[in-house]
Amino acid sequence: MDLHRNLGFLLKDVSRLYTRRFEGRAHALSLTLPQCKALAYLANNEGVSQKRLSELVEIDPMSLVRILDRMEADGWVKRRSDPEDRRARCLAITETGKPIVDRVWELAGETRGEALAGLSTEERAMLIDLLARVHANLLAVKPLAEDGPAQKPEPQPPPVRELR
Fold it and tell me: Is 0.85 surpassed by the pTM of this model?
């Protein structure tokens, strides 16, 4: 089997290489990929709750709290009480944080430019369109049992023998 013709392999490896390249750039800003994701999603979802941001960036809530603590200490993010739920905190990018978000988008653009080098404008548009359609297909399918690794079957109790 030619692995370079295998869709799953290609998607995973392209993602890995793209991520590694972006992270190399982000390292210059002393940022991690999860921090960049949190900033980017927050910039596009001002006022979002910590819980919702955790869902959007797919980072567990406790890890996100630590990320937000650091960004708040750096003055990039502010937390405020949610007027509808006093237990919840709403998030916003500060004026100090906006240039950092802009820089994250620049890094993403540089990485994207490298990844798509040699593709025409039409090919780039076609690639994005095709991947968006594959994405939509996968979102539309009925979930498997847990949509995770194969589950071991539950151990069954031994059959009951009747005493005669």
Answer: no
